[in-house]
Amino acid sequence: MLIAFSITPLGVGESVGDLVADAVRVVRESGLPNRTDAMFTTVEGEWDEVMAVVKRAVDTVAAQSPRVSLVLKADLRPGVTDALTAKVAHVEARLAEG
Hints:
By secondary structure, the chain is α+β, with helices and mostly antiparallel strands. It has one domain (2-96): Alpha-Beta Plaits (2-Layer Sandwich). The chain has three helices and four strands; from the N terminus they run βαββαβα. Strand 2 and strand 3 (41-44) form a beta hairpin. Helix 1 runs antiparallel to helix 2. The longest helix is centred in the middle third of the chain and has 16 residues, at 47-62.
């Protein structure tokens, strides 16, 4: 499965980049395939392992912030692997066709 999520610390002032970096660090240290862009971090793996990473990332931010906003989007496709790169590669191949 793929889970795209965004964590926003609330009540800590205007600059939240350091806390967001702490959350992304948790994801990267998990060893699961992942990608971070300007809006979301996407993680690929089995349900329990991906959700555990999201929980750890939220807990890391919550330890430093009085309130946390979490947005999740999931793509559940049993038996599919490497969706993190394969989905983008498919679209890029179509674009290259003209």
